[in-house]
TrEMBL record:
Residues covered by the Rhodanese domain: 79-136
Pfam families: BLH_phosphatase, Pyr_redox_2
Classification via PANTHER family: SULFIDE:QUINONE OXIDOREDUCTASE, SULFIDE:QUINONE OXIDOREDUCTASE, MITOCHONDRIAL
Gene3D superfamilies, per database record: FAD/NAD(P)-binding domain, Protein tyrosine phosphatase superfamily
PROSITE patterns attached to this UniProt entry: RHODANESE_3
Protein known as: Sulfide:quinone oxidoreductase
Native species: Pseudomonas psychrophila
Length: 521
């Protein structure tokens, strides 16, 4: 086998068609990955299909990719696909086709083709709350910085208000603006998706084949809502009484269901952590119950909150005041009850319920209203990169927000593996830490800022009152104002419903940094 392998460079070799029996030899030669460039059935029934080779490769611990190239030759798109694979697969790589010739030419095209490379001082991955705010803050400190923001979406959302929309207390139209209107002046907006990281070369690869080079990289693409992990959910969202405040187009449907329900059963769910705004699932419950109570129909509605976890809220100090509202609304709490399946037309949901011994039972429940919070994870491009931790979240020093293995890379927002609440308030304080530390790194000085884990969750326990939960790492209470944070207040409602939306658009996204000092121990 070895004599038929042609080495192109230290990380890439090619050969002709291989058999399953050859894989042991390839593993012994030190190859870590195999790429099949030969289309299945090209050579007739005697040609081994890629699936059988892939199965055998995986059994030996080898990575495998199928990138078929016709005998007429590779396309530019296939060369781009190989570039992406070479940034993801462990090396050395062996590629094969019928003779090895196509694999060799494909590699040549992938590595020597002209690239639309552009170099920036700072590249920011993501144009959401974190990306826009940190770009504005950097430019406020140094207007000469060349900053590129990678963001494919043309609309920008103020997501914290969606729970208010679902409770009939906010207009959904006021939660969205064109991305172009919030992009800081002076940055270059790259309207594309990120495909891969190449941190050794200090570049990122985009969906259109472009490579962006950077001196420093900021990663803040947010997280990914995994609707598809709940069987039957996607096809019934927005109808059959199934809704979620975690989507811009569904929050108004939540309010429609709440204001029209007069009797029946209302189920609210919360998946396993981490999720963005851990209080949002119960905010939906509280605002709904408050409306039903004021209409005089609450006694005719059976309300149940199904939580995948074992506690109502992760910071113990806030549990007693929240429980007062749970009891006042006569809501039943079902702990360690995780939504796994939905039949919208049949108005039925299934939950996996874990008992004290760890045994799991599938429980069927009917509903008239089902408010779903989906499981959440880091975006695919993060989870498959070498920059992620074992759980798939972006690996980040919890104090400096710097990557522990690539000091020129910082991260903030929901994608981080830091143990703080994933909220816009957390991002607001992380922005200053990243901006100051990145600029210190550029100057070669000590990183001056430390993030204390601050997060804020304004718990809307009724229309007109909020428990302003502010806390940091380890559940330490970090109130901004000199008031008991466990008390529901009208002033906190004004802060949540009026001031914070205004400040988001006019302050945070423009680099204004009020009340952003962190207080690490």
């Amino acid at each position: 086998m070895e004599q038929n392998i042609k080495r192109i460079d230290a990380s890439f070799s090619v050969t002709g068609q291989i058999e399953q029996s050859d894989l042991h030899s390839l593993a012994a030669l030190g190859f870590a990955s195999v790429i099949c460039n030969r289309p299945d059935h090209e050579g007739g029934p005697e040609q081994p299909g890629h699936a059988s080779i892939q199965q055998a490769a995986h059994a030996l611990g080898l990575s495998f990719a199928y990138l078929p190239v016709p005998s007429t030759g590779a396309t530019p798109e296939q060369a781009q696909q190989l570039r992406h694979l070479l940034n993801e697969l462990p090396t050395p790589v062996l590629a094969y086709c019928r003779t090895g010739n196509r694999s060799s030419k494909l590699y040549e095209a992938a590595t020597q083709a002209p690239r639309k490379a552009r170099l920036y001082d700072v590249v920011v991955v993501g144009g959401g709350s974190a990306g826009i705010s940190v770009s504005a803050s950097l430019l406020k400190r140094n207007a000469a910085l060349r900053i590129a923001v990678i963001e494919p979406n043309t609309e920008h959302y103020y997501q914290p208000a969606w729970t208010l929309v679902g409770g009939g207390a906010f207009d959904v139209k006021n939660t969205v603006r064109p991305t172009a209107s919030v992009m800081p002046k002076g940055v270059v907006w790259i309207k594309a998706s990120l495909c891969a990281f190449a941190p050794q070369r200090k570049v990122v690869l985009l969906s259109d084949g472009t490579e962006l080079g950077y001196q420093q990289l900021i990663v803040c693409p947010g997280l990914q809502l995994a609707w598809e992990t709940i069987e039957g959910l996607e096809e019934t969202l927005g109808k059959n009484g199934v809704t979620s405040n975690y989507r811009h187009d569904l929050a108004p449907y939540t309010w429609e269901l709440v204001r029209t329900l007069g009797r029946g059963k209302a189920l609210f769910t919360q998946p396993g952590m981490p999720i963005k705004c851990a209080g949002a699932p119960q905010k939906a419950l509280y605002l709904s119950c408050d409306h039903w109570r004021k209409r005089g129909v609450l006694d005719s509605i059976a309300v149940e909150f199904n939580l995948a976890g074992a506690v109502l809220f992760g910071v113990p100090a806030f549990v007693p005041p929240l429980m007062k509202y749970v009891k006042a609304y006569n809501a039943h709490l079902a702990f360690q009850s995780n939504l796994v399946k939905v039949d919208g037309p049949g108005k039925t949901a299934w939950f996996d319920v874990t008992d004290a011994d760890g045994s799991v039972t599938r429980v069927e429940k009917t509903f008239d209203l089902l408010h779903v919070v989906p499981p959440q994870q880091a975006p695919d491009v993060i989870r498959r990169s070498e920059l992620a931790d074992k759980a798939g979240w972006f690996e980040t020093d919890p104090a400096t927000l710097q990557h522990p293995r690539y000091p020129d890379i910082f991260a903030l927002g929901d994608v981080c593996n830091t143990p703080n609440a994933k909220t816009a308030a957390a991002t607001r304080k992380q922005v200053v830490v990243v901006a100051e530390n990145l600029l210190a790194l550029r100057k070669g000085t000590v990183l001056p800022k430390r993030y204390d884990g601050y997060g804020s969750c304004p718990l809307t326990v009724e229309n007109g009152k909020v428990i302003l939960a502010e806390f940091g790492y380890g559940g330490k209470l970090l109130p901004t104002f000199g008031l008991d944070p466990t008390v529901a207040r009208t002033s906190a409602w004004w802060l949540k419903a009026t001031f914070l939306p205004w400040f988001y658009w006019q302050g945070m996204l423009k680099g204004r940094e009020w009340f952003t000092d962190c207080k690490p121990d």
